[in-house]
Amino acid sequence: MEEQAQVHVMPRIGDLAPDFTAITTVGELKFSDFNSGSWVILFSHPADFTPVCTTEMTAFALKEDEFKAMNTKLMGLSIDSIHSHIAWVNNVREKMGILMKFPIIADIDMKISKLYGMLQPGESETAAVRAVFIIDPQGIVRLVMYYPLNVGRSMSEIIRSLKALQAAHKYKVAMPVDWQPGDKVIVPPPKTVDDMEARVKSKYEMVDFYLAKKELEEQS
Questions:
Q1: What is the pLDDT of residues 104-125, one digit of tens each?
Q2: What pLDDT does residue 124 have?
Q3: Does 116 participate in catalysis according to the annotation?
Q4: What structural domains and CATH numbers belong to the chain?
């Protein structure tokens, strides 16, 4: 057969986020323009007017100002029409008093869902799983989370991960397990014997020469 089935692979950490132009609840947007100069959290949900999705989307809406303070924009997506999106946004505002101001992509033809690997046939061929892509201001994918249809995401973990990524990027350090702002960070391991000797004599909190911690303020 000359024609082969197209394989859709999700973008990986370190990849340039695939660009696209889409109809959203705030009008037509080109992703690279939306992303320019700021971090973006691009996230998908299975369907409008569904209970778990409503809890998630309202949680994002309630945290939007916190994300803005971290130079981060939100962008949602589902395989629904723009009319469905607008009706759902209005319904949530009327019933819960929460307005989802961030753009929600109407991916009715599933092009963007396929571009980002959000469709996983084992779960559903017509509903996007709960994917989260954190993308830096240069358009590089920095983190990917995937949740099944029946488990809602952890907003606190998304925020923690974003803060960790931004701090790691700014100060060129790594974060230990369960890191929270204010915790000590991990200094990159030495790459030469001289570096190792200097590390041993340093004021870092030393577990061993390859595992050393310090206060993040010391990096500023």
A1: 999 999 999 999 999 876 766 6
A2: 66
A3: no
A4: 21-153 (3.40.30.10), 185-219 (no CATH)
